[in-house]
Amino acid sequence: MAACQNAVETSMQRYLAGKSGDYEVLEAQLQLFPSETDVAQTQINQRAVVVQLYKALGGGWQTEPAAVPSPSR
Question: What is the pTM of this model?
Answer without folding.
Answer: 0.60
